[in-house]
Amino acid sequence: MKALLLADADATDALGAALARTRPPRAVVHLHGDLGAGKSTLARALLRALGVRGAIRSPTYTLVERYPLDDGGEAWHLDLYRIADAGELEFLGLDGDEPTLWLVEWPERGAGALPKPDLVVDLSIEGAGRRAGLIPGTPAGQAWVTAVTAGHGVAGHS
Ligand SMILES: Nc1ncnc2c1ncn2[C@@H]1O[C@H](COP(=O)(O)OP(=O)(O)O)[C@@H](O)[C@H]1O
Ligand SMILES: [Mg+2]
């Protein structure tokens, strides 16, 4: 696992852009962290860097927002903070056409009903900034972490 220090919200945006630039063709990303840790900031930056224009709404109430991507794929941004149990995910119609990118806030609340993550980003508050742990869950995720930390120009530590 690599840990990055993100001094301000611009640094979170830069990480989102770097993740977008280096992403594998299909990816499941779990965004872990308390309220205010920067999960939505990172998700929004990633979506913007992938070419999403217009409003990027918080999925806090809708649970999922879907975005077509320029490459013909689709990104799904989920926020499971308000679900009572993972069974509610079944009613979202998430089966069927699978997205090429999942960005899931509060993934622990969907345990058992979500695909296995290629990458877990573990965000926490560190002073005035944030700390982002990058934890790969698959070989594709491992390659992603290597690429993003190299391209990001930030020295990670194991
Ligand atoms: N690296 C950072 N340093 C300082 N503040 C940040 C950083 N990244 C994001 N923020 C700020 O933290 C606040 C909460 O972010 P948000 O993404 O909504 O958190 P979450 O979705 O985890 O609840 C926002 O005001 C955002 O600008
Ligand atoms: Mg959020």
UniProtKB/TrEMBL annotation:
Leader sequence segment: none
NCBIfam families: T6A_YjeE
Pfam families referenced in this protein's UniProt entry, alphabetically: TsaE
Family the UniProt entry places it in: Belongs to the TsaE family.
Compartments, as annotated in UniProt: Cytoplasm
Protein name per the record: tRNA threonylcarbamoyladenosine biosynthesis protein TsaE
Zinc-finger in keyword set: no
Organism of provenance: Lysobacter niastensis
Keywords for the protein's UniProt record, in alphabetical order: ATP-binding, Cytoplasm, Magnesium, Metal-binding, Nucleotide-binding, tRNA processing
